[in-house]
Design brief:
single chain, mainly alpha, DNA polymerase, domain 1, hpI Integrase, Chain A, two-stranded antiparallel ribbon, 13 helices, 2 strands, globular
Length: 301
Amino acid sequence: MSAGTAVDLFLRHVSIERGLAANTVAAYRRDLAVYTAWLAERELTELRDVTSGHVSEFVRYLGQREESPLTASSIARMLSTVRSLHRFLLEESVVEIDVAHDTKPPKLGSRLPKAISIDQVAALLAATDGEDVQQLRDKALLEMLYATGARVSEVINLNVDDVLDEEVVRLTGKGDKQRIVPVGSYARAAMDAYLVRARPLLSARGKSTPALFLGIRGQRVSRQNAWLIIRAAAVRAGLEVEVSPHTLRHSFATHLLAGGADVRVVQELLGHSSVATTQIYTLVTADTLRDMYTTAHPRAR
């Protein structure tokens, strides 16, 4: 079976049978396009001719290529995709051996999530204060991101009906898994102002849509627009650190744990399938406590 046909079968499998999110399938498609192009350059058009040595060589290539070598985390992600493809082909009896099974990804450095302080979050949110349509929308968007710890994709994909009442919102995460997350008073006030005084005006500029957050032409706000909104607010707030939509998610988790929240509650709020993913935030709060101890305790140094 040719590499192209095998990839098509695999993508159909993860999309239809496993029901993975469209963004995840698109990421698989991009990764496998790089892999099959690399195989084609070596005249490996049939996947049954690929060996474990080829897969290992591909991993080395990703980190050493002259044009845009990948980081260790990106290589690990791409290798995970390649391993999924070969495992699928073995399960479907297309090949007799999973040649990618024993290929190891590069070691990842210990990278802690980058959160900003509570004061910096307050300054960021205050930078969206105002009464015009876009300011009301931006305020509601940023307050929702910080209040719920949602991924930016989860917030921009919200529909009006997902705001179930004044206190909770329904988020749809990876794999279309839904969770109910409470919304604090600041976010509720910002959302009320947006829904009453801004969204009707934005909606009138475009076709009817159930989307909660709308752009200036009445369409659903895109990921890129959300990123630009946050960057502009960070500039107005005078923040000298890099701020992205995920920064608010990291800050949400870090501030909750620092305030005494149980890690499993934070796991549920973030939509993590494993508590191990959430526990990385406990390292951030432990580092903060360690710094405070070193600074404040008379016999710490």
